[in-house]
Amino acid sequence: MMDIYAPTMNKYLQIDCSAVTKSGFFFFSLVILRFLE
User: Which superkingdom is the protein from (predicted)?
Assistant: First the structure.
């Protein structure tokens, strides 16, 4: 799985690291909150 997503993530990080990091963290937090419920 990681080997497939690694190149894609690298491209996104090169485009805009801050935007991808913020959106990724936001989505990750939503998943955790829903899982905890």
Answer: Bacteria
